[in-house]
Write a structure and sequence with these properties.
Length: about 325
């Protein structure tokens, strides 16, 4: 960086080389501004302190089964939500990223079947969770962090939106944990979904729904209830979740191929590849179809769904 700063004042080719080496989609806005590079130097931890204090407040570090990574979560939020006026949205994004990762770890071998069912029951009750109680310390810590954090986020969002949004956020969490419970039961019984529709009944409710929606309410523009409950918003949201989930599945093949085997067999079977076929290739087909759906919704066009996976109900 020092070399770039020194040479760039005298040689325009340095700027060209830098732009070609680091295209727009591969750069983070903070790294493109000298004052922010100075602000984020190694002895300045202001941005991280609040994240680690939040982790300590809710005792999340006691969840030994979970990947509690506030720094990584913050970095995912900084890129799309960099400007200072988006601080609340950035915090909501990063905190819910930590929470959904911990919940995912609970349902992915970190908890017993009893703990998973208890957690789902607590999310279903939400405000009335005291009627259920906690079957373990881990469940109590995780649910308390999730519930209290989202209560704070929704209180801020209510001021921005001029309405109560808690019910909508809670419903996203319910959909997510129901889907996770279904997949956990499939894994426990070694069940492979027979059709793509059966698989998508769980897979379509991906982790990013809880992250994106809470942040969206804090961006500034009003999102009236009739908009978020409308058909157009719902279709766009559904395709976005499908893209994120299917991309995650494709990446899983690179990291943990054995863990993704059952999913790949299901997808390949529906697409005609059969077990042992090109599982990753079939997932790529689904990703492309879902991404096309997102683009159509963004253009405001009526979707003409292609394939049984994305057929609108």
């Amino acid at each position: 960086m020092a070399q770039f700063t020194e040479q760039s004042s005298f040689d325009n080719s340095i700027h060209v080389t830098h732009a070609l080496k680091f295209p727009l989609y591969a750069t983070l806005e903070p790294h493109e501004h000298r004052r922010n590079i100075e602000r984020f130097k190694t002895n300045g931890f202001q941005l991280l302190k609040s994240g680690y204090c939040w982790v300590a407040e809710f005792r999340l570090e006691e969840l030994k089964f979970a990947r509690i990574m506030p720094l990584q979560a913050l970095l995912t939020a900084v890129s799309p939500l960099f400007r200072s006026e988006l601080s609340d949205a950035r915090i909501a994004w990063s905190q819910n990223t930590v929470l959904v990762t911990a919940v995912d770890d609970l349902f992915d071998g970190g908890g017993s079947m009893e703990e998973m069912r208890n957690f789902v029951a607590l999310i279903e009750k939400w405000d009335d969770h005291s009627e259920i109680g906690f079957c373990s310390k881990n469940v109590g810590i995780l649910f308390n962090a999730l519930y209290q954090t989202n209560s704070r986020i929704c209180a801020k969002a209510a001021l921005v939106q001029n309405r109560i949004v808690m019910d909508h956020i809670a419903e996203h969490w319910r959909l997510m944990v129901r889907a996770m419970m279904t997949e956990a039961e499939w894994a426990s019984s070694k069940h492979i979904p027979a059709t793509m529709e059966e698989y998508m009944s769980a897979a379509s409710h991906s982790l990013v729904g809880t992250i994106f929606q809470s942040a969206a309410y804090l961006l500034g523009p009003r999102l009236p209830e009739e908009v978020v409950g409308g058909e157009e918003y719902g279709r766009l949201w559904r395709h976005t979740l499908l893209v994120s989930r299917l991309l995650n599945n494709v990446m899983t093949y690179g990291r943990e191929p054995s863990r993704a085997l059952a999913l790949g067999d299901s997808v390949a079977g529906v697409r005609g590849g059969g077990q042992g076929g090109d599982r990753e290739g079939h997932l790529g087909v689904e990703v492309g179809a879902a991404e096309a759906g997102v683009r159509r919704r963004r253009r405001g066009c009526s979707p003409v769904m292609q394939g049984d996976v994305l057929a609108d109900e």
